[in-house]
Amino acid sequence: MTEPSQAASPGIRVDWWCGRLEGLLVRESRKTLSHLQKLFQYPACEGMGPDTVVYRVRWWEPVPANLEGGLFWGLTEIESGQVGDEYFMTHGHFHAKRDRAEYYGTIQGSGMLILMNEKRETRLEEMLPGSLHYIPGGIAHRVANTGVAPLSFWACWPSDAGHDYATIDANGFSARLKNRNGRPTLVPEE
Ligand code: PAN
Ligand code: ZN
User: Which of 11, 13, 22, 132 is at a distance of 20 to 30 A from 175, taking alpha carbons?
Assistant: First the structure.
């Protein structure tokens, strides 16, 4: 009988308490206010410099991007804060391959998952520790941190999904999540 072959371990570790992803192959990106300013309606940010970090993503691509059939894993951490009356949020995107779905799972903090279909109908799902979110294909997705602590969530998406940011840059979402008297409120664009 032959021994089962031992696949080379990529040595990726997840701290399941805080979601942190560690390992030589883990990549990282940071988005600062200067990267995101055009997303906010009133982009003046008193007391916050353009280098203020809004969110970080650490992710692992075990197979090449664009390869059909693989999966990627990532961890996003959004700081607590506001620009005007809008909460710190991710850029938001459709997947370039529109039919590609994704899971988000909240680890710490609280916020809202903002989902918009291609008819530009927007709705919310509340994110709290333990909440699991299935994002079907064809749905743009963005997360806003509505709490006073960092919001972290894991994501798992197909390796060939790709990210279409340009459609959001051009048209935005059809509604903005605003702090109205301390409550997160979805306000339709005029
Ligand atoms: C996530 C997002 C991550 C950052 O991993 O890429 O939360 O958001 P933006 O990509 O909109 O800046 C995901 O949805 N991947 O497909
Ligand atoms: Zn996505």
Answer: 132
For 3, residues 6+ apart whose C-beta sits below 8 A from its C-beta are none
Q: Which ligand has the minimum distance to the alpha carbon of residue 113?
A: 1
Instruction: Give the residue numbers spanning the domain of 139.
Output: 12-188
**Rounded distance, CA 39 to CA 132, Å?**
26
Does any domain span residue 69?
yes
1 found inside a domain: no
**Ligand 1 atom 12 nearest Cα:** 91
Domain count, the chain: 1
DSSP, collapsed to helix, strand or coil, labels residue 104 as: strand
* pLDDT tens string 99-115: 999 999 999 999 999 99
Binding site membership of 133 for ligand 1 (Cβ less than 6 Å): no
User: pTM (2 decimals)?
Assistant: 0.94
The CATH number given to whatever domain includes residue 170 is 2.60.120.10
Both tokens assigned to 62? 């075990």
